[in-house]
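Progress against Task 2.4 (sequence-to-structure conversion) is shown through the following example record, which the project officer requested during the mid-term review.
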Amino acid sequence: MKTLTESLQSQSFAMTPLSGERKQGTVCIFGTGDFGRSLGLRLLQAGYEVVFGSRDPKNNSLVPQGSKVMIHTEAAQMAQVIFIAIQRDHYQFLTSLTSSLESKVLVDVSNNLKMGQYPQSNAEYLSSLVPGASVVKGFNTVSAWALQSGALDASRQVLLCGDEPKAKQAVVDIAHSLGLTAQDRGSLRAAGELEDIPLQLFPLWRLPVWVAAGITAFFFFYLLVRDVIYAYVEKDQDISYRIMITLANKVFPIVALVMLSLCYLPGALAAILQLYRGTKYKRFPDWLDRWMLCRKQLGLLALFFAILHVIYTFIISIRYNVIHTRDTEVIKQIKDNQSEPFDSAEAWATDSFLSLGVLGFSMFLLLGITSLPSVSNTLNWREFRFVQSKLGHLTLVLCTAHCFLYGWDKFLQPSRYKWCTPPPYMVALVVPCVVLVLKLVLITPCIDHRVTRIRQGWQRPRKGSGGGHTTVSTGKATSL
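Structure tokens generated for the chain above:
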């Protein structure tokens, strides 16, 4: 695999316009590391003249062809916008360039190794070292690889902040010329927040992953006790080999169904809370607000467990104990010259169970596909809400019915209640049934009309307010 340096050198010939009149201005970059060189290459391709400031201008074999390398003082005089592509530990030398950096726009692209590493953000520290310059924090959330690949395989968004509007606009113009989008996050005080973003590890996934892990652990041990330990204690049978496939394939669909239900439960709770308050102009509790923000992640984890269930189901027929049990049963029937009579009711139940499972999983996949940004961005609000809400609840209905048919009439058999505990599928049905019942209540015309009015701005009149009602301009309804 090519190194970043080799790739930059090979691409500079084919992609960089090295001659001819340039339409853009001059940009200076302090630092000739991976990020500085990648940024310089993209700027050259966009028509800028690029000047690198380096401690050793003679060592310029790695910089993109078409750029210039000078000492920092000379390079700073060549451009109005200077990218500081060096680590915070090396900022101190900039104090000797104070006069050269006066009135310049300094773009701090640095990141730290961990959150809270310094009491002051890198950008604010830079501003204190060079008070005469306008410091803008930006491009730190864009990687060298994203710049090198033209942002085709990575994020196109540049987050920036700063105290000077003109300085920020200059950086925004450069970002747009590189084919990137820019988002202003406010004053330079927000620099610490921007520097923490690249260090975050799936912040919106933490709660869903913990929930999924907790549900998985609960049902795994629940099934372990009811199936494996019960058989060993009560029947003196060792069926621990079922843990790997049979037990796991019972856990996965249960977790998928419960997680899918948890995607739609907070919407129902939010609607009930709005009905109780009679207004939408009050914040939800923090726990409910956080729950609603991670619904997408809950749904994707549910889809993951559903896919595991499908894969494990496909391999059941090739398992040793299944083949052995099936062959033994066939041989026994041949020896006894007997056969099992055909049960039409069982055939109906089995076919319906499988059919609903296929339909539910197909709808599940559709929900997962439409949650992808590349797909959801092509849908308008009504289309996205129809898929995620209407089809989402239909998916929950199909999957819940699939689980009901799995149980069929087993709940009537006392032998299913091992050690007085209900079968796991009955426990799994609690949350989805609660969600579907709440949804059924909320879509009744009288309640749905009240919820719709509240979300359009209507507020219940307070006692002693004269009996009127407050009307606010109708906006886009909140998807719950």
